[in-house]
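step: validate -> pass
step: tokenize input -> pass
step: predict -> running
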Amino acid sequence: MSLLDINFLENSYSEVKEKQLFGKWITLGDVRPLYDKLDDSISREVIGKSEQGRDIFKLKIGNGKKRILIWSQMHGNESTGTKAIFDFLNFYKLFPDNEIVQRIVENCTIEIVPMLNPDGALAYTRVNSNNVDLNRDAVDQKACESKILRKVLDSFNPKFCFNLHDQRTIFGVEGTRNPATISFLAPSEEVTRKLTKGRKETMNVIVAMNELLQQIIPNHIGRYTDEFYPTATGDNFQKLGHNTILIEAGHFPDDYKREKTRKFNFYSLLQGIFHIAVSNNFTEHESYFSIPNNEKSFLDVIHRKPNGNDIGFLYKDELIDNQLTSRLQKEKTGNLEEYYGHHEIVFGH
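step: predict -> pass
step: emit ->
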């Protein structure tokens, strides 16, 4: 299994990072100017409009036989993957002669929808402007954004897909005291969670991404539940024969802006694409199951008090006067021994 050079990635990342994108509230207005900075070899087109008439863009890289589709921000308030995509595009632009880029361009054709839900992104909501969760709209396709993604899927016919999301700060890595900074999922195709050929191939790519990340942030990588969701995008795309890798960007200590996590998200994406580019056999998958499960084991702040009278808080993000603010809200009370706090305050015994 060909893994990327960690030292090269770490040494080059400050140059690769797209500095025009920062924080969690990323909108079409933030990314639109970046399209003009793209390398000339990256084609771009508007493939449709959101429910409120905002442009939805698609980018295209490479001319190889292996087809990869990537999309981000189908949930408007989940932007870490979008930042990672533009870091990837900068890497492609800055290192055109590097073997990583050369192998990707020669062997892969990649189509990218950096922001599927621009209305939800502007409003900083999970859903689109008609209150539709695009990640539960793969069957009915009530939303125009869902129709656009499905049209891209059907016309492009990718072998692999990367479905980029964010997960909440509540998730930890089973068996550790660590937050789940990056979590992966090879979605199920039906309710029994059968290990089909496609799921094994999806798991194989995840194994490569996990092996890379374990060198940098060991024991901060989780495995998302593979419960079958009959209306979910990843489950349906997987069932249709398009191996869909779900990347969930989570919390890293003291990284509420998700700026450290975006780097690990970028590393994952680059490793996954490179693995697809250089591999001809995707059958090895067993170590996917050695990735610990995600578990809901964290609160943002815990006040540890005597006699089991603990108080647990979570941050709630909301837009106030056109600014993204995060405010603590009480979530749980009582004996919270089973939870860890990203920050803990211990009161008198």
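step: describe -> Residues 259-278 form the longest helix (20 residues).
step: cleanup -> pass
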